[in-house]
Amino acid sequence: MAPSGPRMLAWDIPSLCRNTIGGGRALGRLRPSTCYAASGGSISNRMRIFIYECVSAGGLGPIVPPSLLREGRAMLDAVVADFRRLPGIEVVTIPDETLCDAFSTAAARCDWTLVIAPEVDGLLRSRCQAVLDAGGRLLGSQPGAIGLTADKLATAEFWQERGVPHPRTQALDATHIASFPPPWVMKPRCGAGSQATFLIRHQDDAMRVWAPAFQECPDEEFIVQQYVRGQAASVSLLIGAKQTLALMPTRQHLSHDSRFRYLGGSLPLPESLANRAARLVLQAVAGIDGLHGYVGVDLILGDDGLDFAIEINPRLTTSYIGLRQLCRENIAEVMLKIVQGETVQTLTWAAKEVRFGIPAFEPIP
Asked: Helix 123-133 crosses helix 100-109 at what angle (to 10 degrees)?
């Protein structure tokens, strides 16, 4: 007996694409078949969404830090689960990075493609460009916006021109480290997360971090930023042609070993901090053409009341895992509506506290 639920057409590339996390039967060579989605949501038109998560698909090669793999898989499981709750939505994924033809075919055949990938080595930008080259549509930012925001030095210069508060930032000076006094934060110019990121408290401290930083990212250029004391936070936005909707600001939990390793997050922030974060994040993304879909902005809410934008992540971020637990609406559905040009009213949130991290490897229901 067929399961109950709204019917929809399923297109699958045999042995290459799958329509559920954890596998799925091959449905023939791009022949329509019948599959089912869970009830819920309000998207009524039948639609196929290709969701590609680079790390779990092997895009970083065979040796991947376990934390990155867990983070990528957690985001993938969460957003796939949310889209599958919408009637008329088919979710397509591919299990293997080596299947280049499958990626292009899925991007071309599906109505939208959501790319989840780190910015390192141009991965996010190149995958998004590949979607466009295949004739697909991005449920996310355009390559030009990704190129700007993935480059932390270029982003800092962009903000400097527009008066957005941010820490002093410059390319690493091999002799003097920086032209402004320490403490400094040294990080890759185009890195992601806390990759090769170190706190340098004084000039002599630089020699201690130099070797491990370049060992971790041997081919990267590095930048130096002024270290700012305060609460690390992030704000996620859903951006479309007609609306930019800020979601609930989130506290970031970072390691205290001078490496700023991401340990998860919690929400909500105290109201005073949340209001400061919401004001700054809209300044940070203003004027960047091509930012679309889900975008995350990292901030420091200063102990002295001065707040700073740190970087922009033009993609789905780990905060999604926590936000979906508090939001009474389906964030994936809202993202789709905003990207399609609809206007969405303010979201509603459950009155509770949530702390989230990266699971050992358990899918999110």
From this structure: 60
